[in-house]
Every structure is written in C-alpha cells, then in structure tokens.
Design a protein that fits this description.
heterodimer, A: about 375 residues, alpha+beta, Thrombin, subunit H, Pdz3 Domain, 6-stranded antiparallel beta barrel, 20 strands, globular, B: alpha+beta, 2 domains, 6-stranded antiparallel β-barrel, about 20% helix, about 30% strand, elongated
C-alpha cells in the first residue's frame, strides 16, 4: 500500500498509459473510473491503515534520521552502536550518499541539522557508516537485540524521524541471497522436454565443470541426487540451486544400459541457466512502471523482500520524482521490533530489507575505508540518470 | 404487537446488506492490524503450496497458476497457455509434474489446465474457489505469483492490497503490484479463496489487472472441455516477440478456423488472406481450433515463412505467409 499522500497524487494526476490499448479491451487507469466517493473511501482506508500502524514505529522513529545532500533528502539513516566507535553511528545506503560524501547533513528526530562524515563502508551491503562530530546531537541508538523475523504476509513498517509511518507493506519473501555465486553449479545442460520416463538426460557437460570432474558425460541420464529420485529437469535444477556451492552430492545415472554412481563436488553458479522467464529488456521496462528502482538494487548477500511501496511517486514535474530517497531507515514489525534496514527499491513489486541478524553480524566487523570506494568523479551518477 | 415484528427484522436486514458492501474490515487501531495480520499469514501459509509456476519448453512461455481441486485442475491466464498443449507445473517445493492445457477464453484472459501425473500423496495442494460478484473498491486482497519466473530459492512473493475498481470483460484491478511471471497467478480474498487470476499491468502501482473468478464461473464447462475462443488484448505481461499472422478468427468452424478480420499491412494481408477464408492447415498440419493454431505458430519465429492452407468458397489454396511479430501488430502503448 502506498503512503496516503502519494495515493492522491498519483491517483488523480496524469496517468493515462495503460497496457490495454486495444479498442474494446482498453481499460483506462482504474482510478479514473471511480466515483469520488470510492476514491475518498480508498484514501480514507489508506490513512486509517497508516495511522493504525503508527505505534509500531514509535521507538524506531527516535533512531531514524534524514540525510541531506545539496539541500535534498537523499536517504534515511538508522542510528546504531558500533564497537569501534565511542559515539553512536548512522547506517545508511552508500550509493545514495556517495555523490558528495564530504558534504552530508543529518537531521535528527529533534529536527536539528548537523554535518556528518562517512567513516566506513560495507560495500557488499551497500551500507555506509556515518558519524556526527558534534557532541550535542544526542543520537539514540536502536536496540537491535529487539529483533524480529516475521512470517510471510506479516505487516512491516518503515519509520520516519517524525514518528510517522513512511511505508507499510507485508513480508513477501523470507531472507535470501540475491547473488548468483551463492548458488551451486553443476555445469550441465539438461533436456527440458517433458519425459514420460524417470530421469533427466544431459544434453551437454561443460568442460572443467563440477559435472565433468565427476566423470559425467553428454547422454548420461541423471536418475537421482543424494538418493532422491528426479522426475524432470526443473526438479533437478531446483534441487541443485538450493544447495550451497561446495556441497558434495551423490549422483546416480544411467549410461547406456548400466546404472552408475559418482560423487560431485558442486561449484559456484557463475551464470543463470539458459531459461529466462522474460526477455531482459521487457522485464526492465516493467520493473520501472509506477516506481523508480534504486541504482544499486541487486547482489545483496541477504535480504528480505517486501511489497512496501517506498518512494516512486510519478507526479509530473516533481523534481524529487526521479530519485530514491526512502532507503536506509529502520523497518519494524507491528510490535515495534526491528526487522532490518530498507536498502533498495528493487522494482514495482519489491523493496529489499537487510535483516537485523545480518546487521548485528556486520556491526561486529570493521568497515572498509571510504577512500577505496569513492566513485570516479561525479560522472557515474550523472550518466545513470 | 405482531405487526411491529417486521420492522426490526427489516432494520436488521438493512444493516446486514450495508455491512456486506463494506466488506473490508475497519482498521483503526494497531490491534485491528494485528488481527488482520493473523488472517493474512494463516491464509498465505495455506495457499502458497497451491500457487504453481507453469512453463512450456515449446514456446518458452512462463507464468503462474493456481490449483483449485485435489485432482489437479489449474486456473491460469489465457496468454500463459497460448501456443502450448502441454506444460510443466513447478511446485514451490521445486517438484514438477505435467499438465495438459484445456480451454482458454482469450478475451477475458482466462484458461484452465489439468495435471496429468498422479499426485504423490493422492491429492494435490489446492485453494478454494470464491466469488467476485460482490467485490467492491477497498476490499482487502492477497496476491501470490512466481514474479519474474520460478526461483527455487524463493517462495512466490506475497503482496497485499485492495480492490481498486471493476473493469469491462470481467476484469478487476487492485493495488497488489504485479510483474512479468505473475501472469496466471491467483488473487485471493482474506480467507484464501481464489477471486481472480493475474492478467496485466498499467503504468501506476494501482493498475494491476486480474481476470475475475466470475469469468471462470460463467464459462467453467467450456473451459474445462477444452474450448478456446476470443481474442487477447495487448498486455505488457505478454510476449511481443511471439509470431503472429495478423488476423482475428471466429470461433472454430467445422472445417477449420474462419477468418473474421485481416489487419491491413499485416503478414496475412500481405499474403492475400481475406476475411471469410477458412484456415485448414499450417504447413500441412490441420488447424481445427485456435489452440492448435497457436501451438503450431509457436513452433516458428517471427520472420519465418509458413504455408497456410485455406478454403475460400469452393476453392482451396495454399498461401505463403511470412510471420510477423506480435508487438508490431498489436503495439504496446
């Protein structure tokens, strides 16, 4: 659900493009066809939901800050403690603050503004560690031990520094790695045509792959993986991708008339399988419909997926429209326990959140120095707009 | 005294109808959200196993679907099954089974398929079928679907939202955000009953369109019997590279497919096909109905040349047609 103020803005202004463009099947933007009373009902309902959720962010809001660069809010930040630092530190989204990292300003929940310095980076998570030198900033660190791993479909909220709810949605997918390298790789091309027999014939075995090293050859028919019978290629792929790279697996297969067995040491999956659900270009187009995805939005080692609609207002002529500025703040469950930090708008359907447990582990490690991660000039950001 | 009785009864009745139109539970306190959450999480747990991915090796199509009976009847979208006669069903646990495509009503983007493999435990996981007649804007709904295609390390993403509006051709729209791969996936009411099937998206986050379950109810028998009819709209979730002839057909004629309209400048028009012609074969394969026609076309790519056998009145002819791209004939806006 979108933040109510945005519902009004997007609902009533300038949205005419629609996928259904054919004569009889033309379906205009659904909001255009509603009676004023229905629009009011939808708006009131959203306001009610956001207001009802407000107690959930009461504590988290006190540890939420706004981060400004060139007079614009570029992100939220979450105040935490770090064993290396005496003062509380602020975690935020690195790729949103790296344009002018030396000229950042932080607004505290009390409404005061201070200059801030980037003191370290966790590049894999796109997180930056900020400090405020001024002793009177009175930052309140978040208690990450009051953490929560909510069930699928549970409500979660994104806190704002002013005690209101910035985003409300549900848990879409439990925490997982988005890295291809975290999936196991066997190194075979499977025959995907549905068969009436048991087993999956191998169309090709990649040279130097885990499969080749274990002695598998083109034409072999895979019968079982770790004694689990395999009925088709999709099932085999799914079994493999759930295993971590480096796992050992007993593969039973048929070669000619002989049933054989070998042990495979799985490699790391370097690239996706040959099956792509959608042409990449069209998927990218869809990802941006109705939203502005973050520039850095993939390859996170561990993230929860939610349908929280952060930013992505498509109001015409709104200069703030073109940017992602809602990342970096704390996400809570309805009891106010910390689910994690919003790290990226992935597409029109998803927002990624780094889980609290990952943050806790991360904060016991040393961040990398900033100097190593500064973008080469400012050109990179400009060209990507 | 007895004459007074109908009055409170009528009053009670009015109250009941009023609360039916206001089906969405009122949420004003955090405890209201918590009880709603209990309902949503319970429903998600129950219906996730019935939410499947559908995949065709023949045409490379990939979408979602939902099982609605223990013997494996699947509801999905018309554009997901187009061009396929058999599809691979992938369950959230990664297992697979084979399904036969039954019927499709393209205009409403509804379709059915049937799992033909026996269920390992004797029954497939399934969701109840609901009603969409009385749905009204602000009713709360849950969407599941294999967004972006099946992903073994992820369950189908849960999305929560409201009914926004009802559209023509039995479509309903919600603010449960959808994307490619979700097509054919289920929209549920809070009790986990299927009330719609994901069909298309528009430019805004409030523009997610679903074929309502009412469209299925009206044509249940026809769909289950394998009839394929109607015409697909141009959907963002559909494949623009699919090969097309550039025609609209009528419901199956006895001897083949009757051509209702030929798009000017399209491949069929260039080859000399006319409205009223009956398409009997493509590359000598009989085309008795729209499903077979699409299945046949899906073996080719846009740009390929095919031989279309037609009858025009008493004449039989074979025309050579160079297939076009769907996206060029039915452009997206």
């Amino acid at each position: 659900m979108k933040r109510p103020v945005l519902i009004i803005a997007t609902g009533l202004l300038g949205l005419s493009i629609h996928a259904f463009s054919q004569n009889k099947l033309r379906l205009p933007d659904p909001l255009e066809n509603l009676r004023p009373s229905e629009i009011k009902r939808l708006h009131t309902q959203a306001v009610d939901f956001f207001r009802a959720a407000q107690p959930a962010v009461a504590t988290a809001s006190k540890s939420t800050v706004s981060i400004h660069s060139s007079r614009q809010r570029v992100a939220f930040g979450t105040v935490v403690t770090h064993p290396d630092k005496k003062q509380p530190v602020i975690l935020t989204k690195w790729s949103e603050v790296n344009k002018q990292p030396s000229r950042l300003r932080v607004t505290t929940p009390m409404g005061k503004r201070y200059p801030a310095q980037v003191v370290g980076i966790y590049p894999d998570h796109d997180l930056a560690l900020l400090t405020i030198k001024s002793p009177d900033a009175k930052l309140v660190p978040l208690d990450l031990t009051a953490s929560s791993t909510p069930e699928l479909g549970s409500f979660i909220t994104l806190a704002r520094p002013d005690g209101h709810v910035q985003g409300l949605g549900v848990v879409s997918v439990h925490a997982r790695s988005l890295r291809e390298g975290d999936k196991a790789y066997l190194g075979v091309l499977m025959d995907f045509s549905p068969t009436h027999h048991q087993g999956v014939p191998l169309k090709e075995v990649m040279p130097n792959s885990a499969a080749a090293r274990a002695g598998l050859r083109e034409g072999d028919v895979i019968l079982s993986l770790d004694k689990k019978p395999i009925t088709g290629a999709m099932e085999m792929r799914n079994t493999l991708q759930r295993l971590p790279p480096g796992s050992k697996m007993i593969v039973r297969y048929r070669r000619g008339h002989a049933d054989k067995q070998t042990t495979v040491h799985l490699g790391s999956r370097s690239e996706n399988t040959q099956i792509r659900a959608f042409p990449r270009k069209r998927m990218q187009q869809m990802e941006q419909m109705g939203t502005v995805p973050s520039r850095i939005r993939t390859n996170f080692p561990n993230v929860i997926q939610s349908d929280i609609a952060i930013q992505g207002d498509s109001t015409p002529n709104n200069p703030h429209d073109n940017q992602t500025n809602d990342c970096g703040g704390p996400v809570t469950d309805l009891n106010g326990n910390i689910v994690g930090i919003a790290i990226a708008r992935g597409s029109r359907i998803k927002t990624y959140i780094i889980p609290t447990s990952t943050l806790q582990n991360l904060l016991t490690t040393h961040p990398e120095p900033v100097s190593r991660h500064l973008p080469h000039g400012n050109a990179r950001r400009k060209t990507s707009q | 005294m007895t004459r007074l009785l109908p009055i409170p009864a009528a009053g009670l009745f009015l109250f009941v109808t009023a609360s039916l139109t206001q089906a969405a539970p009122l949420v004003q306190k955090i405890d209201d959200l918590k009880s709603l959450q209990t309902k949503i999480t319970r429903t998600v747990k129950h219906v996730t196993p019935a939410t499947i991915s559908l995949f065709s090796t023949k045409n490379g199509a990939s979408g979602s679907g939902v099982i609605v009976s223990k013997d494996g009847l699947i509801l999905t979208a018309g554009h997901v099954v187009r061009g396929a006669e058999e599809m691979t069903v992938i369950f959230t646990n990664g297992q697979q089974a084979r399904a036969k495509v039954l019927g499709a009503h393209y205009t409403q983007d509804t379709a059915m398929a049937q799992i033909i493999d026996p269920a390992p435990s004797g029954a497939w996981p399934y969701a109840e079928v609901g009603q969409s007649k009385s749905l009204t804007s602000s009713d709360l709904v849950i969407a599941l679907g294999h967004a972006g295609g099946f992903d073994p390390i992820r369950t189908p993403p849960v999305r929560f939202g409201r009914i926004i509006a009802r559209g023509p051709n039995q479509f309903i729209s919600t603010d449960c955000t959808l994307i490619g791969g979700d097509s054919g996936g289920p929209l549920f009411d809070l009790d986990g009953r299927v009330i719609g099937i994901h069909s298309s998206i528009g430019a805004s986050l409030s523009s997610n369109n679903h074929a309502s379950i009412e469209g299925f109810h009206k044509n249940w028998g026809k769909l289950k019997n394998g009839e394929t009819w109607g015409r697909l709209g141009s959907s963002m979730l559909d494949d623009p590279d699919a090969p097309v002839l550039g025609i609209i057909t009528r419901d199956s004629a006895r001897l083949g497919l009757s051509v209702r309209h030929v798009f000017d400048g399209g491949p069929a028009s260039d080859a000399g096909l006319r409205a009223g012609d009956i398409i009997r074969t493509i590359n000598r394969r009989a085309t008795p109905n729209l499903r077979v026609l699409h299945a046949t076309l899906s073996r080719y790519n846009a740009g390929d040349s095919i031989k279309v056998g037609i009858t025009r009145g008493k004449l039989s002819r074979t025309l050579s047609v160079t297939l076009g791209r769907r996206g060029d004939i039915l452009p997206h806006q």
